[in-house]
Design brief:
8 strands; Arc Repressor Mutant, subunit A; five-stranded antiparallel β-sheet; alpha+beta; single chain; 26% helix; three-stranded antiparallel β-sheet; 136 residues; 3 helices
Length: 136
């Protein structure tokens, strides 16, 4: 299966992960499904019915569920470098993924960047006293 790379993001549909510069972004299962569906066809207008069938296959759900999921995706993705949305609304029709997408084959392995948080190392103590009762 492909990974989708766009802007600072890498989407892995199989693992259900979205990374922004190697940092995981939480968007939930339906968000991953919708984003995968949109990213697989960048520039194409996907109807609300197509997107609802992708995210809620065989279920009858309110269209407002799709609206809420798209709003959540937009918030998680933030603006593009040009200040626009990654996902454009096509009034009364559906949505369109606006950014170019690169399909990446196989596993995307990137080193995890240091978090900048302090770390603790636990090292064994050496018994320098000569007292064998203190030896671990």
């Amino acid at each position: 299966m492909h990974h989708f790379a766009f802007g600072p993001f890498v989407l892995d549909p199989v693992k259900g992960t979205l990374l922004r510069q190697e940092i995981p972004i939480s968007i939930g299962h339906r968000g991953i499904t919708l984003l995968t569906t949109l990213a697989a066809r960048p520039g194409d207008i996907l109807t609300k019915a197509e997107l609802m069938e992708a995210a809620w296959p065989g279920l009858a759900v309110e269209e407002s569920n799709l609206t809420v999921q798209i709003a959540t995706l937009r918030k998680a993705l933030g603006p593009t470098d040009q200040g626009g949305d990654w996902i454009a609304t096509v009034p009364r029709v559906g949505y369109r993924f606006t950014a170019p997408v690169e399909r990446v084959e196989g596993s995307v392995q990137r080193p995890i960047a240091p978090s900048g948080k302090p770390t603790i190392a636990v090292l064994p103590f050496a018994n320098l006293s000569g007292d064998q009762d203190q030896h671990i």
